[in-house]
């Protein structure tokens, strides 16, 4: 007798729950829409402010005064605008931008961030210093490279100094990055290649010292970028080094130098016992001595190493078409 009443009550409860659920969903959806709208408006306002701030800074670079937008902007907005401009300007405009930053003491905060805080924050600050450049930025980055206890941070400092042409000498860089004991990477090669044109004599001096094989290979590789014929004799000696990594480095340098004086030992290394050396020799020989190396490269189509055979095929394609 009471079942219909209970059923009606349950139905009313279900309707109420559904209505409340729908209302909650509607409120939540409205909240999300409003929040997204506010976020988009803030973003649009921030972008407009950044464009205006960037224009104002550019207008003041020839020596003019900054305006109201710059005066009321936060340090973070000013630095963001400077970093953006630093990626766009070159030459005299870049020098003016650096002067503007130093005159307005904008580097103080970045320099402080680069020296303390989390590694991620410090790396971001160092990248800003690398974009801005200038004597103060270089001084800060060099101090970090020489003094910071963390290798990853020192490596980032070196990476920022390289485009600024402010890396220390090879000997100092070896000490700063611990290259006597740490693994040598392609990034280290890039550093030493950048240093090579102005530090050829020091590289040759380092090569006469007792160094680990991977470090010797790094130095030999850099000799190819010295643009100095005095390096040819050192490369020929490196081609006879007991360590395959050093012989490979000599071949990379020979490829870069592209001097006929390297042909005899490059051709000899086509018969080296190391697969890696033969592979590098194929590339160097095809570049330095294309005609002389063609017959020997043809015989290397059946080399025991698959990687060498691939390199031979890559080299013979252009040589055959040129012939």
Automatic annotation (TrEMBL):
Looking up InterPro entries in the UniProt record yields: ARM-like (IPR011989), ARM-type_fold (IPR016024), HEAT_type_2 (IPR021133), PBS_lyase_HEAT (IPR004155)
Which ranges does the record mark as transmembrane?
A: 12-34
What domain of life is recorded for the organism? Bacteria
Claim: Electron transport is one of the keywords in the record: no
Q: Name one GO molecular function term.
A: deoxyhypusine monooxygenase activity
Question: What are the coiled-coil residue ranges?
Answer: none
The keyword Transmembrane is assigned to this record:
yes
The record's section on SMART domains has:
EZ_HEAT
For this UniProt record, give its keywords in alphabetical order, as a comma-separated list.
Answer: Membrane, Transmembrane, Transmembrane helix
PANTHER family xref list:
DEOXYHYPUSINE HYDROXYLASE (PTHR12697:SF5), PBS LYASE HEAT-LIKE PROTEIN (PTHR12697)
- Describe the function of this protein: Catalyzes the hydroxylation of the N(6)-(4-aminobutyl)-L-lysine intermediate produced by deoxyhypusine synthase/DHPS on a critical lysine of the eukaryotic translation initiation factor 5A/eIF-5A. This is the second step of the post-translational modification of that lysine into an unusual amino acid residue named hypusine. Hypusination is unique to mature eIF-5A factor and is essential for its function.
**Protein name stated in the entry:** HEAT repeat domain-containing protein
In its UniProt entry, the species of origin is given as Sphingomonas lycopersici
Q: What is the lineage of its organism?
A: Bacteria, Pseudomonadati, Pseudomonadota, Alphaproteobacteria, Sphingomonadales
């Amino acid at each position: 007798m009471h079942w219909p009443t209970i059923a009606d009550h349950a139905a009313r409860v279900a309707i109420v729950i559904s209505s409340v659920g729908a209302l909650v969903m509607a409120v939540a959806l409205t909240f999300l829409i409003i929040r997204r709208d506010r976020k988009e408006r803030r973003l649009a306002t921030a972008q407009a402010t950044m464009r205006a701030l960037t224009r104002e800074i550019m207008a003041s670079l020839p020596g003019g005064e900054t305006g109201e937008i710059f005066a009321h902007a936060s340090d973070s907005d000013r630095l963001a605008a400077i970093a953006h401009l630093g990626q766009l300007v070159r030459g005299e405009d870049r020098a003016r931008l650096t002067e503007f930053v130093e005159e307005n003491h904008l580097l103080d905060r970045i320099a402080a961030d680069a020296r303390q805080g989390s590694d991620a924050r410090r790396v971001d600050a160092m990248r800003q210093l690398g974009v801005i450049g200038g004597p103060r930025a270089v001084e800060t980055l060099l101090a970090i490279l020489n003094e910071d206890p963390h290798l990853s941070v020192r490596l980032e400092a070196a990476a920022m100094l390289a485009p600024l042409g402010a890396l220390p000498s090879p000997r100092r860089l070896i000490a700063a990055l611990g290259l006597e004991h740490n693994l040598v990477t392609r990034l280290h090669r890039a550093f030493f290649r950048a240093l090579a044109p102005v530090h050829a004599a020091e590289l040759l001096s380092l090569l006469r010292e007792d160094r680990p094989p991977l470090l010797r290979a790094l130095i030999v590789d850099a000799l190819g970028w010295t643009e100095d014929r005095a390096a040819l004799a050192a490369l020929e000696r490196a081609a006879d080094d007991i360590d395959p990594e050093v012989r490979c480095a000599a071949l990379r340098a020979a490829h870069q130098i592209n001097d006929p004086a390297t042909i005899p030992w490059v051709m000899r290394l086509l018969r080296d016992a190391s697969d890696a050396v033969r592979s590098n020799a194929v590339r160097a020989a095809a570049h330095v001595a294309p005609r002389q190396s063609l017959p020997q490269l043809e015989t290397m189509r059946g080399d025991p190493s698959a990687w060498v055979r691939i390199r031979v095929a890559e080299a013979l394609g252009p040589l055959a078409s040129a012939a």
